[in-house]
Amino acid sequence: MTITTGANEIDRRLLMDRSMAGRKAFTVPISDVPDQDLPNDELLRDDLELPEVSQLEVIRYFSVLSQRNFSIDTNFYPLGSCTMKYNPKINDELASLPGLADIHPLQPDETVQGALRLLKDLQDCLGEITALPGVSLAPLAGAQGEYAGLLVARAYHDSRGDSARTVAIVPDSAHGTNPASAAMAGLDVVTVRSNEHGNIDVQNLRELANENTAVFMLTIPSTLGLFEPNILEITKIIHDAGGLVYADGANLNALLGLVKLGDLGVDICHSNLHKTFSTPHGGGGPGSGPVMVAEELSEFLPKPVAELTDDGYVLATPKNSIGSINGFHGSFSIAARAYAYIKALGIEGLQSVSENAIIGANYIQAKLKDKYNLAADRYCMHETVLSATRQKKRGVGGLDIAKRLLDFGIHAPTMYFPLIVDEALMIEPTESESKETLDHFIAVMRQIDDEIDSSPELIHEAPHDLPVTRLDEATAARKPILRWSADE
Amino acid sequence: MYPEDLKYSKEHEWVRVNGNIAEIGITVFAQESLGDVVFVDLPAVGSEVEQFAKFGEIESVKAVSDLFSPVGGTIVEVNDSATDSPEVVNDDTYGSGWLIKVELSDTAQLDELMDATTYEGTLE
């Protein structure tokens, strides 16, 4: 047998596959208490499959796995709509202070005044940034923020006896969470079209808005990375019909200090702190999706809401609150990180965040648009959506391009979303990246386009240099193997 | 790519009419746009569907999409092999990859569908 160099099957074995009967990582100390008979020894099982490995093997296994992590700390990560910006390490340091990290959610309010002040200040910051002053930090993720916001909208209509409003209007370009949240909140979803410029089809919206409209959900900027030029007309149409306007704040990174959602006529929005306000993302979460509402809706917010009273800071329940949507106060440690970020930057710093995010995305768009079609040929906001239709005609789809990017140490863009764009590649560089990084990405994208004609097999077989190469996603989805089994 | 004996909808479904029974599936264009199909959700036999209304969902490695019925009527049969082995939709789009059979409520609805040439023209 010839042994191959580099990463090989020995390295790839799961911990269970490394198991050798009798091998141990730990020696249990000799018992210094009397033996006890178990009340029911039928509860004891000896047929559990557990890995029997040495301590070094456990350490090596997890150390190698950790080195395979791909993160913003190691590589460029232009995953559209996810705002994979740098998370300053000082956020973690501050959130780790004992007064913030070593407190318990059930401690009396008077013993955690500093932590409650942090929550109140963060509420005020988010209220100021969005011009929607009623804020609850309770939701644990963007989708839960949407759900909470929609329940607030329903509670508002119900409180006015306006209970026939059961419809949520959602654009065809929306994140899938929008219709899903609306359905969970008991609303019927109606889709409004986008027009050929990537904007809401205002005439279509006018036809759909009526006495049944509970809420219109809109992502600003849109999932195409575009600012909606008719936004004031749109919010007026909805308000004239008696509905509320919900803004999905997933793309808030484009608006900081530039546009306040409340000023546009938005009544409710959420913000993903893990996107816009630089807190850990994805598997490194937890997430946080505070919900912000106009003054007259704040009595319906989910509890708790931090308030300053004559007796100091307290966690209060709004008068007609929709109630709790999870335990305790939301993701406190994430709120602490976002607070650190906002306070470190200030309003001017936040404004340059958005300006630089917008400039970066437009720079990439301008440098690639001769090679790649654009979903909409106009200035974008913080992200640009390419449509790899020219490449598709030459035999290479969006997926292939995304896979080839991995060979260059670049995370794949968001693919095939928004659904209304063929072969979509959604690229969001964020404000964190240097011009050199953007130039490298642009050069790689141009080279990949050249490779379609010169060496297409390089693209079709990519990635080449990662621990695993091209995955069979169809079989993985059709016949998933979800747990280790001794038989396979 | 687009058999002459079928009717087509703008939502990229095909219809094969046999008496008052319409066999329905998705077109090659839809199948190729979706990529590898990994999950198909079909309605219960006996349920009613209106023309151009949603009757199910199809999921590929790219996206989840709604399925719209080109005709209205009662669902008399669904293709269990498409739910068990979704790859048949990719492999045999106009044959064993059919999805539902509908007993037509009104054969005049067929006039609202396209022939192969017209449908192919809409794809440009």
Q: What are the main properties of this structure?
A:
heterodimer, A: 488 residues, alpha/beta, Aspartate Aminotransferase, domain 2, Aspartate Aminotransferase, domain 1, 2 domains, seven-stranded mixed beta sheet, four-stranded antiparallel beta sheet, 16 helices, 13 strands, 36% helix, B: 124 residues, alpha+beta, OB fold (Dihydrolipoamide Acetyltransferase, E2P), three-stranded antiparallel beta sheet, 4 helices, 9 strands, 19% helix, globular
Structure description:
The complex is a heterodimer of chains A (488) and B (124). Chain A is α/β, with parallel strands linked by helices and 488 residues long. In chain A, 36% of the residues lie in helices and 11% in strands. Chain A is built from 16 helices and 13 strands. Chain A is globular and about 75 Å long. Chain B has helices spanning 28-34, 80-84, 87-91, 116-122; strands at residues 7-8, 13-18, 21-26, 37-41, 48-49, 54-60, 64-68, 73-78, 100-104. The model of chain B has no long low-confidence stretch (mean pLDDT 95). Chain B is globular, with a radius of gyration of 13 Å. The chains are: A alpha/beta (488), B alpha+beta (124). The interface between A and B is medium-sized, with 11 and 14 residues.
Number of strands of chain A: 13
Could you say how many structural domains of chain A there are in total? 2
Number of helices of chain A: 16
CATH superfamily of chain B: RNA polymerase II/Efflux pump adaptor protein, barrel-sandwich hybrid domain
- Mean pLDDT metric of chain A: 94
Strand content of chain B: 35-45%
> H/E element string of chain B?
EEEHEEEEEHHEH
CATH structural fold name of chain B: OB fold (Dihydrolipoamide Acetyltransferase, E2P)
Strand count of chain B: 9
Oligomer: heterodimer
Mean pLDDT metric of chain B: 95
